[in-house]
């Protein structure tokens, strides 16, 4: 049982790392990177959604992308 739990956490880390690599290496958005990962690795989107939901940095990046596309109302942001 412990090995199963470790495998699940390791898989989540690998997915996040691969998504970040796609974003930085190809200049794609997080949304595009997630779709590319799902299509390339033949993974169910629900599995990836659970992994991404636990990663605050990627969740925030996706939220900003959706706000920029006007799919979500803009939230207050500090000027950078």
Descriptive tags:
80 residues, mainly alpha
Kindly report how far apart the N and C termini lie.
45 Å
Main β sheet profile: none
- How many helical elements? 4
**Average predicted local confidence, pLDDT:** 86
Shape: globular
Runs in which pLDDT lies below 50 for 5 or more consecutive residues are none
Report strand %: under 5%
SSE topology string? HHHH
Structural class: mainly alpha
Total domain count: 1
Rg, Cα atoms, Å: 14 Å
Please tell me about this protein's structure.
With 80 residues, the protein is an all-alpha fold. It has one domain. It is built from four helices and no strands. α1 packs across α2. It starts with a helix and ends in a 12-residue tail after the last helix.
Quick synopsis:
By secondary structure, the protein is mostly helical. The protein has helices at residues 2-26, 30-41, 45-53, 56-68.
Lay out the secondary structure.
Layout (H helix, E strand, L loop, with lengths): L1 H25 L3 H12 L3 H9 L2 H13 L12
């Amino acid at each position: 049982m412990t090995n199963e739990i470790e495998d699940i956490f390791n898989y989540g880390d690998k997915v996040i790392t691969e998504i970040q690599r796609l974003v930085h290496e190809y200049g794609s958005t997080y949304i595009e990177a997630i779709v590319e990962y799902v299509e390339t690795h033949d993974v169910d989107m629900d599995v990836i959604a659970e992994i991404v939901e636990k990663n605050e940095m990627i969740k925030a990046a996706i939220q900003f992308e959706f706000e920029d596309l006007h799919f979500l109302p803009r939230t207050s942001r500090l000027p950078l």
